[in-house]
Amino acid sequence: MPGPRILIVDDEPIVIKSAERVLKAEGYDVEGAAGGREAILKLEKGGYDLVFTDLKMPEVDGLTLIKWIRKSSQVIGIVIITGYPSQDTIKDALELGIIDYIPKPFTPSVLLDVTARAVEWTKGKKPADEKEGGEFPPAMAAELDRVIQLYKHTPGSLIPVLQRAQEIVGYLPPVVQRRIAKGLNIPVAEVHGVVSFYSIFTMKPRGDHNIRVCLGTACYVKGIEGIVSKIHEALNINIGDTTENRKFSLEGVRCLGACGLAPVMVIDQETFGAMTPKKALEIIGQYDKSGVEAAAAGNPAADLAEKEA
Prior knowledge:
The chain is globular, with a radius of gyration of 21 Å. The protein has helices at 13-24, 36-43, 62-71, 87-95, 108-124, 138-151, 158-169, 174-184, 188-197, 217-221, 224-235, 277-286, 292-296, 304-308, and strands spanning 5-9, 29-33, 50-53, 77-82, 100-103, 209-214, 248-253, 265-267, 270-272. The strands form two sheets. Strands 2-1-3-4-5 form a five-stranded parallel beta sheet, with helices on both faces. It has three domains: 5-126, Response regulator (Rossmann fold, 3-Layer(aba) Sandwich); 138-197; 209-308, 3-Layer(aba) Sandwich (Glutaredoxin). It contains 14 helices and nine strands. Strand 1, helix 1 and strand 2 form a beta-alpha-beta unit. By secondary structure, the protein is of the alpha/beta class. Helix 7 packs across helix 8 (174-184). The longest helix is centred in the middle third of the chain and has 17 residues, at 108-124. The N and C termini lie far apart (50 Å).
């Protein structure tokens, strides 16, 4: 029996082909549309459960398409895929009830993770955060709601609630933002504005260990680019990505407050200074104790020291 029917809307054929390849391999019924106009023609015939759409497209853009879907009688889950996530467009999309957001370029693991959550939406035909327990395990949902209630009547509570929510869930996807907005009785756009402004918050899933590299002037002059390049080579991720096995995430920041130690790398809460490509890989390798399992998952972190030798 085929899985949920998904329409991928993008004016870049490579995006449609990439999404089709990943999702069809998992049993999803996937079609593509080269823009909003073609998507509307296909959607008028009905039968789709999910729409993944770009925002910037000629003639009919993503927001116009989402508004058309919401005005139609069809109940369809919507996910945004875009390389240009401006705050205003994401805010508008959140208000229109998108399920989630995927930045370009996306990895197969991120696409599959978001798709799985979107499929949960289709099962109940209503936003996951409105269902009993939401998309989270019951204990996680209960803890998130407990934190919201704890801070509900405290002035300036949004940031501490977001911090705790990120600790509980791991990141802050739209469904979490909507749940917080509803619990604190504030606009979802206000929640998104804070999440997108502060670098401590993320709307993308992070790995078990978050690697932050400083891209500021002092670190740049002392060779941080070479370190980032070596991490990319070893873990096969770019800045902003997470490894396929969710072991590591890589994040670039403008300052870590340790210019005298440049170039600087932080893993979780531990700071490492005077980095070289070799030292960086050796330190990262110490955080991966899974040995053969890591290598089998396609993550070479367990063999980083050997790789550099």
